Each structure stands twice: as C-alpha cells, then as structure tokens.
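The records we work with from here on pair a chain with its fold. The integers have meaning only within a learned vocabulary of local backbone shapes. A complete example follows; check for yourself that the lines match position by position.

:::
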Amino acid sequence: MERTREDEIRSRLDDIAGPDPGAAERALLARLLHSFTAKTPARVDHLGELLRGGDQDAVRDHAHGLKGSAANIGATTLAALFAEIEHAAREGVVPDPDSTFVRIRAEQEIVLGSVARVASELDV
C-alpha cells in the first residue's frame, strides 16, 4: 500500500515527538505545521520569481531552504522537487520556470491540504 502525504507527515512528527505526544508536544507540532502552511506559499512564489530571473545562486539557496522546510515536516515529495531545483542550479542550470512551477504548485496543493488535516488533529 502506498503511503499518502499525510502518512509521511505523521511519520515525521512521530520521529520528532514520539507516537503519543503530550499536550505541549502536540501544540509545538501544530505550530510547526501552521507555520509551514502560512509561510510556504509566499516562499514558493518567491522561488518562481527567482527562477524567472535566472540567478543560479539565488535559486539554489532558496530551493535549499524550501527543501529543508518540507523535509522537516515530512513532505518528502515536495522536498525532492526542491532538491531537483537546487541540484540543477548548483550544476549551473536554472530549470524552466513554467514547467517547474506547475509541478511545485500541484504538489504544494496536496501537501498543504495534508498538513492542514494533520494540524487540525493536533489542535484538538
């Protein structure tokens, strides 16, 4: 059975706080997820601007930061997309902004929905 994005996120949160976190840990995890949801769309928009601008170093650095944020919450597919961009920029190639952004937006939509569902469980 294939793991869903929510499964991946829950697994990562288990790594962080264990399978049965207390109230303080649940609140911390919820804040982490809410922060990701609040900040990531604007950061992804900025990556799109950087891709269109063609600055390899800026693209590499920004993609690296986004990769870390996504990996930190267990959004492995999204993190892998950012890793591809980071690697390409490190190799001197700025990926095509339009096709790259379509892939990122599609995955981001899935991840943000998953994050919201997991966060709502933690908020209870």
About this structure: The chain has a mean pLDDT of 95. The first helix runs from residue 5 to 17. The CA atoms of residues 35 and 93 lie 31 Å apart.
